[in-house]
Amino acid sequence: RAIAGLVKPASGSIVFEGDDITGKDPTAIVTKGITLVPEGRKIFPDLTVLENLRIGAYLRNDDLTDDLNWVYDLFPRLKERSWQAGGTLSGGEQQ
Length: 95
Known about the structure:
Number of helices: 5
Strand content: under 5%
Distance between the termini: 20 Å
Order of helices and strands: EEHHHHH
Structural class: mainly alpha
Mean pLDDT: 88
Helix content: 25-40%
Shape: elongated
Number of strands: 2
Oligomer: single chain
Radius of gyration: 16 Å
Low-confidence stretches: none
Strand order of the largest sheet: 1-2
Number of domains: 2
């Protein structure tokens, strides 16, 4: 959580690619490609599977097709259900 800028570390500093990001705003940290991925089923249940995947890349300006295909190769069931609401997936599929 400290790396993502959500809490301030009790001591020390956090350096990423030579830049001290200790205590920086989470928005500034995300622009560097660092984010916190919470454990568990933290999805947007009313959004489709595809929309949930796209949210994870909301700062990217490039084409996501190759990366989406990579995810779908790893998890073919998600491709089958890409237009289904995320909240209707089974617990295992949501993880």
